[in-house]
Amino acid sequence: VALQPVAVPDALQGETKQALGLMVMSLVEGGPAAKAGILAGDVVLSVNGAPAGRYRRVARQLGSENIGRKADLRVIRGGAILSVEATIEARPSE
Description:
- By secondary structure, this protein is of the alpha+beta class.
- Helices cover 20% and strands 38% of the residues.
- Strands 1, 2, 3, 4, 5 and 6 form a 6-stranded antiparallel sheet that branches.
């Protein structure tokens, strides 16, 4: 998954209580994010309740020490805030 920091739209900042998220730029076909239903263009707001404004924070939450665990992601898609559950898997080769 390729992620890029982006500003949360002004209209959603009051609801999200944060100014930054990580936009999904691309996914690995068949990878854990794709299996969970994450789409290119989604903006990840949080992982397991921790704000996702920085890539390193997300990488720690989804790292190899957490393989097999569930991750609750909060994302913006099409102006709506959604909850997505993913199972953390070993990183696929790209």
